Amino acid sequence: MFKNYLSIALRLIQRQPGYAFINIVGLAVGMAAFFVITLFITDELSYDSHHENSDRLYRIAVEGTTRNGEMRTAMTAPSWGPELQDEIPELESVVRMRPPNQMWLVAKDNLKFFEKGFVFVDSTAFDVFSFDLVRGARESALAAPFSVVITESMAAKYFPGQDPIGKQLRLDNAFDFSVTGIIRDLPAQSHFKADFLASLTTLDTPIYGPQFLQQNLNFAMYTYALLSPGAKTAEVEGKIDEYIVRTVGPQLESVGAVLTSFLQPIESIHLESHLDNEILPNGSMGTVWSLSAIALFILLIACINYMNLATARSASRSREVGIRKVLGAERQQLIGQFLGESFILSFLAMLLAVGIVLLILPSFNSAAGTNLSLISGGMVAGAGIFLGAALVCGFVAGSYPAFFLSAFSPAVALKGGIVGMKGNGLLRKGLVVFQFGTSIALILATVVVFQQLSFTRDMDLGFDREQVLVVQLTDPSVRTLYPMFRDRVAEIPSVVSVTASSAAPGFFIQNRLVAPDDAPQDENSLLQGFATDFDFFTTLGIDTVAGRVHDKAHPSDSLGAFVINEAAVKEFGWGTNEVAIGRRLAFPGGNASGEIIGVIENFHAESLHEPLEPAIFTVLDPQTYLYVLIRVEAGSTRDAITEVESIWQSIYPAYIYQYSFLDEDVNRMYASDITLGRLFGGFSFLTILIACLGLFGLASFTAEQRTKEIGVRKVMGASESEIVFLLSKDFAKYVGIAFLLASPLAWIGMNKWLDTFNYRIEFGIGTIVLVGLGVLLVSLITVAYQTVKASLANPVDALKYE
Amino acid sequence: MIRLDKITKSYLHGFNRSFILRNISLDVQEGEFVSIMGPSGSGKSTLLHILGMLNEPSTGEYFFFDQPVHKISERKRTDLHREYIGFVFQAYHLIDDLTVYENLETPLLYKKVKGSERKSMVAEMLDRFNMVAKKDLFPSQLSGGQQQLVGVARALIMQPKLILADEPTGNLHTSHGEIVMDWFRKLNQEDGVTIIQVTHSEHWASYGKRVIELVDGRVERDELNPTQASAE
Ligand SMILES: Nc1ncnc2c1ncn2[C@@H]1O[C@H](COP(=O)(O)OP(=O)(O)O)[C@@H](O)[C@H]1O
Ligand SMILES: [Mg+2]
Fold first, then answer.
1. I want to staple A226 with a disulfide (CB 3.0 to 4.6 A). Which of A93, A497, A626, B141 is the partner?
2. Atom of ligand 1 nearest to the CA of A412
3. Which tens digit of pLDDT belongs to each residue from A524-552?
């Protein structure tokens, strides 16, 4: 019997290749999109699940309020970890981890690389995390200061063909570490990157400042805890809070802060944690959800094609049902036949889909910034998902003929099932409307994302981001020599100006508590703090609106002179910019205070998702500068880069020259938005492609069904264009209805997304109508081939068929 | 073999109930060759479908080999029908996507006949109908007469006791019609297969021994065929 079904299914392909092509390719493209998204989602959901005890492994995080608002940070103070472990019995093991601020220069003789994965960890790391130690001793490898355990790929990178154990690696041109062990590489699905595990005891040496490990209120450490089995997180959190109150309570109180701890399950961090100071940019549950929805929609749309074409063919299929029943078929056997056929086609589609996945995965990876592959991860689970999708599609797509047609009594079925057929026209129309509605919604979403992105790209951020080179000052020894570097760079003819700052647009900006002298006790404001060199504002093209900015000619500017932005004037409630000049400000807790010498225009240093913040600018010593900003004359950028590099090499021969362009740094803040746009774009293209494939098939069946009507109309004198109009009208109507249903939903959804930006576009009727017309045009072009063909047919041929 | 008792068939047309068969009572013995005649729309096909268990009567009783068809389950009806009844249609009703061979094989598949036996049964039919050379062709590649022969062969392959034929020669040239009807006569006379055919033409009706005429859903005439009798 199966052979009979198989041959029917294959005959179908042979005898109606167009029909089969639309079915199989449409389904395959839909499945491919579904598979790719499934791979992506599985990858996102698998983060940190490789730790053996991931179900009781938590990161300790802190939230609370200061007088300036909320704070939620992933970091804790260095002294907490061991003290918590000592006093809370439910903490089976605690590990502290300190990744580098930016990058470390790691060197083995002449092999030098900047490394992001150089982390300091307690020796308990091996108890808490599932690091796979292949060389070295678990107990002692991370005990002594200046020990480092490296991954296999780092071993290969720095010690090709040698045994690394006992050899030295030099950090930051200053500190020598000896390799005490080798671990397997961490899976990519980890919320932190660790290629080098250095002993945390090393930090008794003041790499991060003196007494670093004893600090109890400097949130500069990540602390992870393995809870004992059965421990209640709420109880543990309560005990940690007691510890916080007991040890640092008075200090917190003095600055008006209330802090409590919370435990984050390690597997939830990648998708759900969006705290300050995350180690790496995390994913988002929102993206996972919206992509899941898209995946299901695309698959559904592909199944609908199949169903639609099946219903269009139902007259001839129904005759077959009648015959088979006359020949002794039972209903179950017919259900089996139709489902079997459908499964065979969907299985073929699945094989094709695997090919398409292999084809589009590289583009997806580059669009989404992922590194997915078909072979990675659980192959068995993957194959299961593929087969499952094929079965579900086969079932959904085949269910109409299988359950509906097979129920006809043979006498009815033999007449083409006239009685039952009225309803399926409506079903078919409904399904087409659904397909085009989804396409329109997705396309609208894509257009809106790209409009918003180009808006952010073109918006006047209040500073000139073009033609500015950013050179990073990665570590203290480099920063010490900054003045020499600056003066040499300034001499390059194509360099307009040079400055440096502790923060730059597109990079992390530290907030500082600031209070006007006359403010009541404890009334502080949180301002973005920039410690800048002179010429900061001229280099970035930021205008002064009152007073003046820091100037070399005024030596006192380096001591206690502040520049603030207009938003800060508003924050302090001073009415006009002029009023601010001469007022005094202080950093609470410290002794630094000074006078406001000028007010500058607002500029957006953070992404437009964030509101514009008040900011304060001071001139300080070079040790605080992390970025050199160099404005270069247009047209000579390339020369400037090389000249700056040669100056760098002569001053810092041991360090790698790293630069970027400010406009790129700014755009990087929208990386996840750009990814979203690209993904929406790609998938909406696939959606409309599949929907049009279906429409094409449907148009050919409609034209075929109406052959006689067309013939009669032509005989009665209808022109070809009238026939084309007649046939296109229906399809235009479906698209129109789809548009009316989908555009309000898309409008609501996209306004929600736009609301995540503090500065957003308004998208109006114009965009919506344009998308609607575009889709209408594409759908009419799709059906044009069939309608024109039908209209050109000789009426006599058409009528002969009766 | 067949006993119909006060069979009616009606459909709702809007608010009106229209009667297609009214109070049909008749008996058919095993081995008969019956021709049903009558004007278009008089209910001939409907009657044949009821006899073939493809359609259910609205009221009345139908006994097939003393089995009360009007009462038994769908399942049992399918069994009866598979076992005893073969159908031949005016429009041939072959499955377009299957070859001649596969069309012949299909009823055997539903009857779960074993592979080797199936092969020999199909081969025998192909042989009997001189269609061995055409076994791999699709219906659309055959002439109407050839298609109807496949239809007849398919009806016969199950070795039914009863063949129901709805205008089997309606679409055929006379010469092809003759071939089909000769087959029916042969089956009836040599193998004792009961045949009930619907036809419009006196000529084809004359192959049968008994003629029933339907008019407006009523049996108008039911008599032994005079031509047939004289030809005997
Ligand atoms: N399923 C049905 N629903 C309603 N009317 C039907 C149905 N099937 C047949 N008829 C009507 O029953 C009448 C008899 O049909 P039929 O038995 O096919 O006649 P014949 O074969 O004698 O030409 C016709 O008027 C036809 O329109
Ligand atoms: Mg009829």
1. A93
2. 1
3. 777 888 989 989 999 999 999 988 988 88
Ligand 1, atom nearest to B217 Cα: 14
CATH 3.40.50.720 fits B2-231, yes or no: no
Buried b (16+ CB within 10 A) or exposed e, A236-247: bbebbeebbeeb
Helix (H) or strand (E) holding A60: strand A57-66
Query: Taking CB atoms and an 8 Å cut-off, how many pairs form between chains A and B?
Result: 61
The DSSP symbol for B130 reads T
Q: Is the Cα dihedral B153, B158, B163, B167 positive or negative?
A: negative
Q: B109 at the A interface (CB within 8 A)? A: yes
| Ligand 1 lining (C-beta closer than 6 Å) | B 11, 20, 38, 40-46
Give the integer Cα–Cα distance in Å for A386 and A394. 12
Q: Which atom of ligand 1 is nearest to the CA of B214?
A: 22
Q: Are B11 and B18 in contact (CB under 8 A)?
A: yes
Distance B12 CA to ligand 2 centre (A): 19
Q: What is the pLDDT of residue A523?
A: 65
Cβ partners under 8 Å of residue A796, min gap 6? A711
Shortest CB distance from A8 goes to which of B97, B110, B111?
Answer: B97
- Structure-token pair, residue B72: 């038994």
Pair of tokens at residue A589:
């807790």
**pLDDT at B231 > cutoff 70:** no
Supply the residue whose CA is at minimum distance from atom 5 of ligand 1: B11
Nearest-ligand number for the alpha carbon of B47: 1
Query: Cβ distance A625 to A533 under 8 Å?
Result: yes
Place of tokens 């259900």: A335
Cα–Cα distances in angstroms (integers) from residue A404 to residues A408, A427, A435, B78, in the given order:
8, 12, 22, 19
ipTM of the complex: 0.87
- Residue B95 to residue A1, Cβ atoms within 8 A: no
pLDDT at A737: 93
Which amino acid is located at A626 in the chain? L
- Name the minimum distance, in Å, from the CA of A333 to any CA of chain B: 8
CA distance A560 to A591: 11
Interval A279-316: pLDDT, tens: 887 888 888 888 888 888 888 888 887 777 777 777 67
For residues A179 and A164, the answer to whether their CB atoms sit within 8 Å is yes
Q: Looking at the complex, does the CB of residue B57 fall below 8 Å from at least one CB of chain A?
A: no
Cα distances from A48 to residues A62, A131, A153, A380, A665, in angstroms, run: 21, 12, 20, 20, 29
- Most distant CA pair in chain B, distance: 55
Contact criterion met (CB < 8 Å) for A322 and B55: no
Alpha-carbon dihedral B61, B65, B69, B73, rounded to 10 degrees? 150
CB under 5 Å of ion ligand 2: residues: B 45
Structural contact between residues B23 and B220, judged by C-beta atoms closer than 8 angstroms: no
Cα–Cα dist A241/B97, whole Å: 76
Q: Supply the pLDDT for residue B162.
A: 94
Q: Which ligand is nearest to the CA of B40?
A: 1
Q: Are A275 and A74 in contact, with CB atoms under 8 Å apart?
A: yes
Where exactly are the structural domains of chain B? 2-231
Joined together, the tokens standing for residue A472 give 């990073």
pLDDT score at B218: 92
Positive or negative torsion for Cα B137, B112, A12, A407: positive
Question: For the whole model, what pTM was predicted?
Answer: 0.76
In angstroms, the separation between the Cα of residue B88 and the nearest Cα of chain A is 10
**Which ligand has the nearest atom to the CA of A418?**
1
Banded model confidence at residue A801, pLDDT cuts 50, 70, 90: very low
pLDDT for position A168: 94
